[in-house]
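Q: Joint fold for the lines below.
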Amino acid sequence: MTNSPHNKESLSPQRGAKLLASPRLLYWLLPAITLLSVAGTLMPQGEPAAWYAERFGAWAGLVALCRLDDIYHSGLFTFLLGLLGLNLALCTWQRQIHKGARRDVLLTHISILTILAGGMVTGIWGQRGSLPLVVGETKDHVEGKPGFSLPFAVKLEDFRIEYHGSGSHRVTLASAQEGWSETAEIQPGGSVRLRGGSVQVRALDYYPDFVLDVSGPATKSQAPNNPALRLEISDSQGAEKHWAFAKFPDFHADPKHRYQVAYEPAEGRIKQFRSEVSLIENGFIAARSALHVNKPLRWKGYTLYQAGYDPENPSFSSLLVSRDPGVPVVYAGFLLLTAGLAWTFVRGMRRPA
Amino acid sequence: MDATTLNLCFAAYLAALACYAAAHVSDRPRARQAGHILLAAAWLLQTVFLAQRWRVSGHAPMSNQFESLVSMAWGITALAGCLWRLAPGRWLGPATAGLNLVLLALCALLDKSVAPLVPALQSNWLLLHVSVIMLAYSALALSFLASAAYLLSHHRRPAEQTAALDLFNERAMGLGYLLLTAGIILGAVWANEAWGTYWSWDPKETWSLITWLVYTGAIHLRRTHRWHGRAMAWFSAAGFAVVLFTYFGVNYLMSSLHSYAGSR
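A: Joint structure:
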């Protein structure tokens, strides 16, 4: 490579600074960030090394070397975002502030810089980890990368999984005498008509977790562990009552009945996960509160979220704990961005065609 | 009842398209007016359908792909009505009716059952986030329709009309970009309430960002490099392809925290 005056110019700091402050750089950065973002959605992220070794064999080393397993936290991606921030800051400084150009564009660019700054604050000072607990357990150490200790302890007082009880159940009615069967969907308390309206089926009661206690039929919980329906079937010849058990179809079958019933319960859809916790400071309960999905609990700069459960262990609840000083900065950026873009849009609409 | 309303809505869009076609062939203004009236009637039926769905389910009709697609189709006609006076020529009515027919036909392939909301969706943010995102997609769909009209007819339209079509594309894209930004922001705030982080690089989030970056590029190229006409029309069409992948592709091809947005 010859050391020509042209090459000297192409490597000069002035030229580099000019490029950094040029919109042309943006047209290289946008596709580069886009391509890496696409790659991150095609390659599963954050899996253990063994997973990549099993999937990619000899290429797994290359995946790890290029940080393809964690693209969004890789040096290259962080560098490109940093370069984007620098480019935006310099362009804004040169074109907007120096030349006194459009304030809506200035506001928009400053907002993006604010969001990037907030993201940096989150990345550097944000803390996040999980707090797996069983009912009655107390913890103040959060598991994560790296784990951290809370200035208070969290005791899980209670954990409940609530189920939707109003789903439709499938009931199949058969008449051995007349040689027909028909299936219909029914809701507890509701009724359906079969055989062209000549037979009516009413669902009198629904027991998601049927038990027989001293007071009679009851439900042990709202979990669909042993679903049972109490039905009344009526036609021109009269009415008869049936018990239908989803898991024990032949149980309680009465040979005197004219109809046979098969029952398929409504899918046990989960309505909500609720954890009730006590926050303990210096050995005393400082607060007691409930949290569920979409309703986190905030205490002393920390936020507790309902994060997980174990279908095999009904007393287990996993909470997520987060402390993120970047959030107010990012939200300020969000507000400025919305205002800046709305301003730009209104300006564009007012411009004559 | 629900299905009947939606079928009537489909029939009204089809009849509107037939009227526009008749007006094009015979050049009768009355046929065009009938098309406009049928388009408005179809939109009202769509509104009734969404209201019925909302009443029956007890939540905003935006909890799955079927509901959000009907909402998006509704938004296309609503925004076309808002931007009607800015659209040059006579392409907006038939294009809106045609795209609605395609989207409603797609709806027929999706699960229409009403189901209770999963815990993650039980939030007022559902209405805010999804409705704004769907309106953004509707505005970007209008931008795409304007681009298609430009690319298909710029050689035989007067220069004034092609310039106006280009400006319509810019305005629809600007509106879509503003709404997309607001929708992503609302989603980030909701994510911080539900998942404890405003950004988790979930595939749906990432593809929303990719869509945003593509339109950011388009808007900057237009402002700083004066990209107009055909180049911008192609860019807008490519941007809408990214929108479609973000909306449909991610739901079916990628595992996402937004998986409830797919067809159940």
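Q: Anything notable?
A: The CA atoms of residues 8 and 33 of chain A lie 30 Å apart. Chain A touches chain B through 47 residues (CB under 8 Å).
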